[in-house]
């Protein structure tokens, strides 16, 4: 019995079974975290498509309001990565519906969180998603959105949000509550969001120098073959979000299945500091999701019923 199936997870949290259910859920998700670790071949140096360093680093005062000319962009070491990411965005559009387990780690206020897990369902048309943070208690966030319904607002339930009862409320997609305890809003954690955000980051970095870019083939995420796009900025600058970032694209589906972002070492010669990490596991593509999957009255969900 899979602990991430919606109906089973709700069953495990019924009165009288909550403690045993939590133990099974934690065990299953810990195994997921172990399986989700990204692996790359030992001979990365031979397989990497290393791009030459930018010849003349630009000063940090350069504005990013104007994009580089096409000729300058093509000469930038990031250009092959950006081209690969754009191609992945085009090729992955046919993967409309999917279900998965999302594994999250983020550094909040200087502290790296434990692994967090979310059940995720995504439908392309009409745009819909369901997300529930998997937790030993029933107070973790649960969100549902369907374009054109509920006045284009979320159905949301969370007993951890301050000054709000543990009941179903309607929230705007940009509500600050959706970022509470997270670096990213809970509504921006789909694979499409991850790829779009990475493309924007690559486009921003392409305005500046001091950049090393590599493409690694044969990486593994959750046992699946992937292409890894890695960008390194050796020197901290206000223009750069990360010292080191890695985006993993599934070779079979072109979907973005993992991202790692690191800030600069705290001491010279030290290791990069993990800032955020998102991994999509147990992915089921073209899942034929129906109206019941995006109905707040679904008995497997925890939303209030009239």
- Give me the number of helical elements: 6
Class inferred from helices and paired strands: alpha+beta
* Rounded radius of gyration (Å): 21 Å
Low-confidence parts lasting 5 or more residues at pLDDT below 50? 1-27, 42-66
The fraction of residues assigned to DSSP E strands is: 25-35%
Instruction: Kindly report how far apart the N and C termini lie.
Output: 31 Å
**How much helix is in the residues?**
10-25%
Taken in chain order, the helices and strands follow as HHHHHEEEEEEEHEEEEE
Could you report the average pLDDT, rounded to the nearest whole number? 80
Task: Give the biggest beta sheet.
Answer: 12 strands, antiparallel
**Total number of β-strand segments?**
12
Form type: globular
Q: Can you put this structure into words, describing what you see?
A:
Residues 1-27 and 42-66 have low confidence and may be disordered. With 306 residues, the protein is of the alpha+beta class. Strands 1, 2, 3, 4, 5, 6, 7, 8, 9, 10, 11 and 12 form a 12-stranded antiparallel sheet that branches. It starts with 5 loop residues before the first helix and ends in a 21-residue tail after the last strand. The chain has helices at residues 6-12, 18-36, 44-47, 70-75, 79-91, 191-205; strands at residues 98-108, 111-112, 116-123, 128-134, 142-146, 154-157, 168-171, 212-221, 224-232, 244-250, 256-263, 273-285. It contains 6 helices and 12 strands. It is globular.
């Amino acid at each position: 019995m899979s602990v991430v199936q919606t109906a089973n997870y709700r069953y495990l949290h019924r009165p009288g079974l909550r403690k045993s259910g939590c133990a099974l859920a934690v065990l299953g998700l810990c195994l997921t975290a172990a399986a989700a670790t990204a692996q790359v071949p030992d001979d990365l140096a031979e397989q990497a498509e290393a791009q030459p360093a930018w010849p003349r680093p630009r000063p940090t005062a350069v504005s990013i309001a104007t994009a580089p000319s096409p000729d300058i962009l093509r000469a930038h070491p990031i250009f092959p990565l950006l081209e690969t990411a754009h191609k992945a965005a085009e090729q992955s559009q046919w993967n409309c519906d999917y279900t998965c387990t999302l594994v999250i780690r983020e550094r909040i206020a200087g502290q790296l969180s434990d692994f967090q897990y979310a059940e995720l369902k995504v439908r392309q048309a009409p745009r819909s998603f369901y997300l529930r943070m998997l937790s030993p208690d029933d107070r973790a966030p649960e969100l549902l959105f369907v374009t054109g319904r509920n006045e284009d607002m979320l159905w949301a339930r969370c007993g951890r949000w301050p000054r709000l009862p543990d009941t179903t409320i309607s929230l705007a997609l940009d509500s600050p509550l959706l970022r509470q305890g997270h670096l990213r809003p809970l509504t921006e954690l789909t694979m499409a969001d991850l790829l779009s955000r990475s493309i924007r980051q690559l486009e921003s970095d392409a305005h500046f120098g001091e950049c090393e870019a590599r493409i690694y083939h044969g990486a593994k995420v959750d046992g699946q073959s992937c292409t890894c796009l890695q960008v390194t900025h050796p020197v901290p600058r206000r223009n750069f979000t990360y010292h080191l970032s890695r985006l993993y694209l599934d070779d079979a589906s072109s979907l973005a299945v993992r991202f790692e972002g690191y800030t600069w070492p705290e001491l010279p010669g030290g290791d990069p500091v993990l800032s955020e990490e998102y991994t999509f596991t147990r992915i089921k593509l073209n899942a034929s999701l129906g109206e019941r999957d995006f109905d707040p009255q679904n008995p497997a969900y925890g939303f209030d019923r009239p």
